[in-house]
UniProtKB/TrEMBL annotation:
Family: Belongs to the guanylate kinase family.
EC number: 2.7.4.8
Subcellular location: Cytoplasm
GO molecular function, a single term: ATP binding
Record-given protein name: Guanylate kinase
GO CC field: cytosol
Species annotation: Microbacterium foliorum
Superkingdom to which the source organism belongs: Bacteria
Principal location class: cytoplasm
Domain Guanylate kinase-like per the UniProt entry, residue ranges: 119-298
Amino acid sequence: MAESRPVPEVDRAAAARKAVERRRARASLKRDLTTRVVTPQTVLRRATADPDSVEGSLRITDFLLALPAIGAGKRDRILDELHISSVKRLGGLGVRQRAALTAWLDTRFPVTEPRGARSRLLVLAGPTAVGKGTVAAHIREHNPEIHLSVSATTRAPRPGEIDGVHYYFVDDAEFDRLIEQDELLEYAVVHNRSRYGTPRAPIDAALAEGRTVLLEIDLQGARQVRRAEPAATLIFLLPPTWDELVQRLVGRGTEGAEERARRLRTAKVELAAQNEFDHLIVNEDVAAAAAEVVELSLSSAR
Ligand SMILES: Nc1nc2c(ncn2[C@@H]2O[C@H](COP(=O)(O)OP(=O)(O)O)[C@@H](O)[C@H]2O)c(=O)[nH]1
Ligand SMILES: Nc1ncnc2c1ncn2[C@@H]1O[C@H](COP(=O)(O)OP(=O)(O)O)[C@@H](O)[C@H]1O
């Protein structure tokens, strides 16, 4: 008979630390699913590729509950329908269970296919602090062939901002005039405060010259561009994780706690709209994300 030896204290402490880390990683994964920073299909794929991963160790019940609009009742009905036991973890699903779950996910959360030919008008949107401004600035510096639209805004310039370079800083009366004269392709009140809009003339001129035009605007603006120019290429920038998005917002240090909380609430709503976009790009690394945007501009032929 094998003699049972006492587990050394250090091993026990290390195992406890590991368990805490894994619980944290699972909590973070659940947040990413809830906020749609990651698709359920991606999580299932990772769980299948490596059953020992955080994704693989996620309980099927927690996985389903983290999906938008699924409560305990629906969860149980889905498990019944797919013949999956509630004690299963994602990494431990059988081949047939996995296929049934994948089919159900694809019906419930369809992955958008890029549409046919798109125009050279590119829109970059995404939640607050995901890095839209940083990626756009990188493109401005490294890809001067791309025309970066300069927006008009009623907000006051910040130190270092130059009128006509970062924004056209205008007062309310001038913004009203721009709207009345139909000089804006789109406009919106952003963050409940100032008005921002895209001047139409410089864009038309750049497109007429055959140049690619990039607009860095908010979700409301992106929707207006879609209506005005259905062939525009809509790009949604995603954070690597929800926690990273929060870190970036805090790290930027430009908003107080209350304003940050408000923006994060808006971010959740905006993330839920990502399916309206033609392409999703994860901003893990600025240069890589910028390169992906530039790549899309090259493949947009019209
Ligand atoms: N709809 C719309 N949104 C814009 C435009 N220009 C900038 N924005 C958005 O307005 C927000 C700018 O917020 P703010 O913090 O004041 O300035 P930032 O530091 O330049 O991002 C970002 O979400 C931009 O995407 C525009 O012309 N139209
Ligand atoms: N890929 C990245 N990795 C790490 N930090 C980033 C990355 N992209 C942007 N940031 C940082 O995140 C913060 C928010 O970026 P910003 O461009 O202001 O976001 P947005 O324009 O989307 O509101 C900034 O402090 C920026 O330096």
